[in-house]
Each structure stands twice: as structure tokens, then as C-alpha cells.
Amino acid sequence: MSEDGAVEVELIVVPDAGAAAAAAAALLVEAADADGSLVLAGGSTPRHAYELAAAAHSDWGGAEIWFGDDRCVPADDPRSNQLLVRESLLERLVVEPLVHAVPIALPAEEAAAAYDAALRDQQFDLVLLGLGSDGHTASLFPAAPTLDVSDRLAVAAEPGLEPFVERVTMTIPALSGGAHVVFLAVGEGKALAVRRAFAEPPSRMTPASLVRSRSGTTTVIVDAAAASLLG
């Protein structure tokens, strides 16, 4: 923590998206090899990191997997984060981890209540998060009421951007409980969000700026394009 009370982050800038995925994969493998509990992100950016992690370490038998958020769609829907993780990681492993999926077959409020109950008393070794161009992370969107929730670990989230479907998301207290919180962002389209989230004061208009590990380390992995607006 800095002298002004701000939580410092470890910034890792690499040349390109492939190197960013490799850096994130290395952290995933380290946590899985230690039989850790991991929270995984959806979206397109982490996919390659999951593929690399599976190729590097095929026995995740002692690990546990949770989801930072998911959409209330069938598990085989292309919009499902569970499908993304299954295709890019789980199906490539020799020994799979224990997976705690969001019960997305339920209506959003019921699914959120069930996931909130499952999350109670859980300790997370690694929380992997993405970053939207609008500054959102998981399904925590700018100025949304979910940003103010302090007594729940998972809540229903209104559609914040396409695809416009109901979602379930971990809350800021849940995500910030990770011993190691890792953000992964690549591409010039994320540059402004990276600056707002990690080089400017925290703001409800940039939800990612509000998520930092309370007791451990927060790491930001970005490629040169995404880091281009940092000082």
C-alpha cells in the first residue's frame, strides 16, 4: 500500500497478446500445481491462457475451479463461460479439477442465491479477471447497483452489454478476497480502460478500479498496446 493509502498493483507489460496469455497461464499452472482454488474469467482474452495452461500442466486433480461470473444460458450455449472453460481447459486435461459451476439453469436471482451460499467460507488462491473496454470486470458494470453490495458474495446482474442476457456475478468483496488477483487485458481497445482502472483514482464508472486483493497481491498483465496510455 502506498503512502496515500492506495493499493498498489504489480504491472507486467509484455510485447503482445500471446506473451500476455503465457504470463497468465504460468500463474494458473502455479496455482493448480499447488492444489489451489481458482476463480476463472470468461470472455475471449483468457481463452488462449487456458489452452496454454492445460498444455503445460495436465493434472489439475487437486485444484478447485470457480467462476467470477456467468450468463444465464444453457451450459452448451456459446455465450456460456462454462462452455469456454470446458473447451479451452477442462477437456484438455488428463485429470480435471473439482468444478463449482454457477447453476445457470435457474433464474438469475435463484442462481445467485445458490452460488452465494456455495461461496461462503471459501478461500481463493487466484482470481483471474478480464477488463472490458468500458472498465467492467466479471459482470460488474459501470455505476451498477451491484457495485455497492457488501453482504453478498454473488448477485444477479442486469445485462450491461451484449449479449443482453441475465447474469450472475461475484461481488467486489468476493473477488477482492483472492490471495492473488490477476487482471488480463490486451489490445489497443483496452488502453483507455487500463489507464482508468490502474493509473487513476478508483471510480464506480470503472468497476475494475474497485477490485484489489485485500490481503495479498494484485497483478495486471497487459500487452504493449493495452499499456500504451499509461504514464
What is this structure, in a nutshell?
With 231 residues, the protein is α/β, with parallel strands linked by helices.
Could you explain the architecture of this structure?
- There is one protein chain.
- Strand 9, helix 6 (191-198) and strand 10 (217-223) form a beta-alpha-beta unit.
- The longest helix has 17 residues, at 17-33.
- The protein has a single domain (10-223), classed as Rossmann fold, CATH 3.40.50.1360.
- Helix content is 26%, strand content 19%.
- The chain is α/β, with parallel strands linked by helices.
- Helix 1 crosses helix 2 (47-56).
- The protein has six helices and ten strands.
- The strands form two sheets. It has a seven-stranded parallel beta sheet, covered by helices on one side.
The assigned structural class equals alpha/beta
> Overall 3D geometry?
globular
CATH architecture: 3-Layer(aba) Sandwich
Weakly predicted, low-confidence segments: 1-5
What does the average pLDDT come to? 94
> Which oligomeric form is depicted?
single chain
Total helical segments:
6
Bin the strand percentage. Answer: 15-25%
Biggest sheet architecture: 7 strands, parallel
Distance between the termini: 20 Å
Radius of gyration: 16 Å
CATH uppermost class? Alpha Beta
CATH fold-level name: Rossmann fold
- What's the domain count? 1
SSE string: EHEHEEHEHEEEHEHE
Please provide the count of β strands: 10
User: What percent of residues adopt helix (DSSP H or I)?
Assistant: 25-40%
Widest beta sheet: strand line-up:
1-10-9-6-2-3-5
